[in-house]
Amino acid sequence: MSRDTPIHSWPGSYYINSEKRWENGTLSITRTTVRFVSNQTKQSLVSFRLSCIVEIKMESSSFIYSTLTVLEEDHVKHWFGSLKPNRVVVFNVMEHFWRELLLQPSSGARGAEPQPSKGRELIGLVSGAQRRLEDTGRVLSHQGEQFDNMMQGLEKIDSDLGVADKLLLELESPPWWPFGKLPWKTQQEAKAEDAARAATSAAASASRESGRNKVISSIPAVVSKGGDSDLKPGCLLVLVSALEVRDTNCQLIHRFERNEVDEIRVTSPYEISVRQRFIGKPDICYRFLSAKMLEALSVLEIQYKKKIEFTSEFTAFQATPLSSPCGREGTSYSDGLLQMCQDTELPLEVPAGELSQLQVHVLRSSVSQAEAQELKQMLMQLKALALEAETELERQDEALDVLSSSTDRATMHIDKHTCRMKRLL
Question: Under CATH, which number does the domain 215-340 receive?
Answer without folding.
Answer: 2.30.29.30
